[in-house]
């Protein structure tokens, strides 16, 4: 089975399933992670992607919005408990254009998690040697400050933190 692999022992599984022992190991911070705000997906054809979620899957889908500071067009798909953000390049220097050159059919680009104090998060993450991809927060698609954490410091995932 999936969990019969020799690298996971029964005590490890038991300790992970116990919320008390798991949460006691979390150090206290001056800031706190909040809810998953969205999962961002880079798409080569924005209209086609909008149509998939709206016309075929029946989701509430926003109009495309240009964010020149980030080099992207964004579309949000409402899911009730979170959102999908569809990203399409805006200009040749768009980070999404280079992502799509490597991933022709598109794919997951980043996850966005809300934080209650983005400045405190930046300070503490820098102290913990987590690289932040900008010196200061930028205003994101929701009109709130955002930062991105280097994927190599986050197990291969580009993580966006957004001020709640």
Automatic annotation (TrEMBL):
Broad enzyme group: isomerase
InterPro entries: Glyas_Bleomycin-R_OHBP_Dase, MeMalonyl-CoA_epimerase, MMCE/EMCE_epimerase, VOC_core
Molecular-function GO term, any one: methylmalonyl-CoA epimerase activity
Statement: the UniProt record of this protein carries the keyword Transport: no
PROSITE patterns reported for this sequence: VOC
Entry keyword set: Cobalt, Isomerase, Metal-binding
Gene Ontology CC: mitochondrion
Family stated for the protein in its record: Belongs to the methylmalonyl-CoA epimerase family.
Function field: Methylmalonyl-CoA epimerase involved in propionyl-CoA metabolism.
Official protein name in the record: Methylmalonyl-CoA epimerase, mitochondrial
Source organism per UniProt: Upupa epops
């Amino acid at each position: 089975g999936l969990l019969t692999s020799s690298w996971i022992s029964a005590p490890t599984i038991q300790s992970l399933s116990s919320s008390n022992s798991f949460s006691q190991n979390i150090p206290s911070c001056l800031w706190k992670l909040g809810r998953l705000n969205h999962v961002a997906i880079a798409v080569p054809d924005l209209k086609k992607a909008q149509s998939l979620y709206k016309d075929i899957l029946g989701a509430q889908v926003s109009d495309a919005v240009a964010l020149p500071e980030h080099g992207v067009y964004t579309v949000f798909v409402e899911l009730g408990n979170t959102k999908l953000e569809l990203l399409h390049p805006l200009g040749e220097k768009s980070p999404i254009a280079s992502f799509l050159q490597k991933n022709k059919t598109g794919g997951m680009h980043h996850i966005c998690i809300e934080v209650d104090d983005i400045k405190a998060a930046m300070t503490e993450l820098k102290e913990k040697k987590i690289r932040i991809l900008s010196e200061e927060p930028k205003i994101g698609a929701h009109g709130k400050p955002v930062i991105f954490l280097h994927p190599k410091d986050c197990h291969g995932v580009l993580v966006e933190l957004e001020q709640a």
